[in-house]
From TrEMBL:
Record PROSITE patterns: FAD_PCMH, OX2_COVAL_FAD
Protein name in UniProt: cytokinin dehydrogenase
InterPro entries: Cytok_DH_C_sf, Cytokinin_DH_FAD/cytokin-bd, FAD-bd_PCMH, FAD-bd_PCMH-like_sf, FAD-bd_PCMH_sub1, FAD-bd_PCMH_sub2, FAD-linked_Oxase-like_C, FAD-linked_Oxidoreductases_BP
Catalytic activity annotation: N(6)-dimethylallyladenine + A + H2O = 3-methyl-2-butenal + adenine + AH2
């Protein structure tokens, strides 16, 4: 027995040495210290060009930056070992957790450093998704690994008749990735962004410490990590609040030709926290963007297209009401009377009943269809802003009717409001300071490389317009490069941001792709 154990240890030792030698001989990158190979995590490190190339691009396809290595942890301990090693290593190298790389500007890149492929912790793995409850106060929650996709969180919680309350439009994003930003969608007006719906986190800091944090325990880290752009730690578990899942959804498209009426109705709907819509979004559509879908028939899409051509553009208010099958007729009646208070174009209300999961996962179906027709080299120069309610009219005149007037690759253009009191001001996610209601504007085109230059110029024009007009705007999923811009972005929260970085990632190892801190503090 002892002999067998000895020979096992010898084999493992020799294998490690052999791997180390072969890694060096295939060219261990200069940027990484050889000491990494002494860790027992060596077989989780991938240096081959195929893998590093795969992790050098993201959904945006606007830039490319190869890591020296990709790390595939099988547990949070593996991640902590890597970060601890980097923290104590005399040779500087950065580390980026990568959810699924759905960023558009290289936010999950680690140029010359190590990308942690969070997916290898185990997508959909039962032990990384646990639904449970507390008695006092009574509350249901799911403990989800940071690498888990929201679609898997939905399926798991739904088995228990439960669901998270706040979503993104697209559910094939990771828990850690969206919680590092905010996580917004049509439910945000009612429940706040996803970061407002978290009870507790497990985080690995930039020193390699594993810390559990919540509003009560290590609260500075908790508030910092939620919306903190990956700067203070890697989320390995999030405890997310749950509520009973509805069975059905009444889904509506209401068409407007008048922007003021469109926004007035959106604002009225988000002020109704009882017996109103459960989801409110909106978008601008030009005639050429109108097409039939699983929602809009060929005939109705022609009707909408004609209207959009006549007015140059139309506004589509997208709403949803959740309900239980047994309550259907009462809900329909209440909805009818609510619709009477709205000012959409008569005859231009479209409704559909779908399952709750079908509604939440609606974008994936469209995305899959689009991906199958899109070329591989399609770029996504997406650009998102938050604007105070009082300036939305100015923005519409100058941007939708001005700067973007002749846009060819308009793509999806989202416009919908939030209630500021559903955002926790202690969290570092940046939102406009001044007003109780603010809008999100999402310009989400698919573009060729030639289009991109033109769109990039437009985004700069939009930012210049906001600056000139003194609009208190913030970028969502921000894409700044200079420290001055980051300071402006975080505004009064900047000092706290720097203090937290000093405390939890003083060597600036984490999420270098955000380009906030480029050297140790
Ligand atoms: P990545 O892009 O891989 O990472 C994003 C950042 O977070 C990086 O800086 C990374 O280092 C860091 N990070 C990743 N995982 C962790 C972790 N576990 N701990 C700490 N830091 C981490 N956003 C919305 O809010 N609402 C939407 O409706 C919405 N819809 C989208 C639809 C599509 C098709 C796409 C492509 C994106 C959409 N987004 C939306 C944006 C999305 O929230 C961001 O792309 C986000 O970064 C999540 O993507 P990801 O999980 O792939 O993370």
């Amino acid at each position: 027995m002892a002999l067998r154990r000895f020979s096992h240890i010898t084999t493992v030792f020799l294998l490690t040495i052999y791997r180390a030698i072969s890694l060096v001989s295939v060219g261990w990158p200069d940027t990484l210290p050889l000491g990494l190979l002494d860790l027992d995590i060596v077989d989780k490190i991938h240096l081959d060009l195929n893998t590093t190339t795969q992790f050098s691009i993201d959904y945006g396809q606007l830039s490319q930056a190869a890591p020296a290595a990709v790390y595939c942890p099988s547990s949070p301990d593996d991640i902590a070992a890597l970060v601890r090693f980097a923290y104590t290593s005399p040779r500087y190298f950065t580390i980026a957790a990568r959810g699924r790389g759905h960023s558009v500007r290289g936010q999950a890149f680690a140029p010359g450093g190590v990308v942690v492929d969070m997916a290898s912790l185990g997508r959909g793995r039962a032990d990384r998704l646990n639904v449970s409850s507390d008695d006092a106060p009574a509350r249901w929650y799911v403990d989800a690994g940071g690498e888990q996709l929201w679609i898997d969180v939905l399926h798991e919680t739904f088995k228990h008749g439960l669901t998270p309350r706040s979503w993104t439009d697209y559910l094939h994003l990771t828990v850690g990735g969206t919680l590092s930003n905010a996580g917004i969608s049509g439910q945000t007006f009612r429940h706040g962004p996803q970061i407002s719906n978290v009870y507790e986190l497990d985080v690995i800091t930039g020193k390699g410490d594993m810390i559990t944090c919540s509003r009560e325990e290590n609260s500075d880290l908790f508030y910092g990590v939620l919306g903190g752009l990956g700067q203070f730690g890697i989320i390995t578990r999030a405890r997310i609040s749950l509520e009973p899942a509805p069975q059905r959804v009444r889904w509506l498209y209401l068409v407007y030709t008048n922007f003021d009426m469109f926004t007035r109705d959106q604002e009225m709907l988000i002020s109704k926290l009882e017996k109103g819509f459960d989801y409110v979004e909106g978008r601008l559509l030009k005639g050429k963007d109108v097409s039939s879908s699983s929602f809009i028939s060929e005939e109705d899409s022609e009707k909408i297209k004609l209207l959009a051509d006549e007015f140059g553009a139309i506004y589509l208010l997208e709403g949803a009401v959740y309900y239980e099958q047994a309550m259907a007729s009462m809900v329909y009646q209440e909805l009818e009377s609510l619709l009477k208070q709205l000012s959409f174009v008569p005859g231009f209300a479209f409704t559909k009943d779908v399952s709750y999961i079908g509604f939440l996962d609606r974008v994936h179906e469209e995305d899959t269809k689009q991906s199958s027709t899109e070329h591989e080299d399609v770029l996504h120069p997406w650009f998102n802003l938050f604007l105070p309610k009082s300036r939305i009219r100015d923005f519409e005149s100058a941007v939708f009717k001005g700067i973007l007037k002749n846009n060819n690759p308009v793509g999806l253009l989202l416009i919908y409001p939030f209630n500021k009191n559903k955002w926790d001001d202690k969290m570092l996610a940046a939102i406009p300071d001044e007003e109780e209601v603010f809008y999100t504007i999402g310009l989400l085109p698919s573009a060729t490389r030639e289009d991109w230059e033109y769109l990039d110029k437009q985004h700069h024009e939009i930012l210049s317009f906001c600056h000139q007009e003194g609009i208190d705007f913030k970028q969502y999923l921000p894409q700044y490069v200079t420290e001055t811009d980051w300071m402006k972005h975080f505004g009064r929260k900047w000092d706290v941001f720097v203090q937290l970085k000093r405390r939890y990632d003083p060597k600036a190892l984490l999420s270098p792709g955000q380009r906030i801190f480029t050297t140790p503090l």
